[in-house]
Specification:
Layout: H1 4-11, E1 15-19, H2 23-35, E2 39-43, H3 46-54, E3 61-65, H4 73-82, E4 91-95, H5 100-106, E5 111-114, H6 119-133
Parallel strand pairs: 1-2, 1-3, 3-4, 4-5
């Protein structure tokens, strides 16, 4: 019998940059995405995420927690937009705080998801964005 992960891997080989400071949340979301066939690069804050982009990682999307100690999601996004090599990489904000619609427009986000994350919504938005990036 072929596993779901094996089937998904036949359909796409996209990489996602997951930026989340909470270890348990990051691990769970990364595993979910891997089971759906994605490659996942994990970062615990905006600085690690920027480092991943600087060494040439080119994800189809960045899933970005906004409120993190160290370099926040806000700081990451501001610096990412200033770099011509990374400015066009879509970013989806992840936040436990509502009211992201205006902030999403100001940050030029591809989307946002509120925590706790709805798995179906997460996979749908990632699938839509990564399909366009193919």
């Amino acid at each position: 019998m072929v596993s779901r992960a094996t089937i998904s891997e036949l359909h796409h080989h996209h990489t996602i940059l997951l930026v989340e400071d909470d270890f348990d949340t990051r691990t769970a979301v990364a595993e979910l995405l891997r089971l759906d066939g994605y490659q996942v690069v994990e970062a615990s804050d905006g600085n690690e995420a920027l480092d991943a982009l600087r060494i040439g990682r080119r994800p189809c999307v960045v899933l970005l927690d906004l409120r993190m100690p160290g370099a926040s999601g806000w700081r990451f996004r501001a610096l990412q937009l200033r770099d011509l090599k990374t400015a066009d990489i879509p970013v989806v904000a992840l936040s436990g705080h509502g009211g992201l619609e205006q902030q999403a427009r100001a940050m030029e986000l591809a989307g946002w998801l509120e925590k706790p994350l709805d798995v179906d919504k997460l996979l749908a938005i990632v699938g839509r964005i990564c399909q366009v990036a193919a």
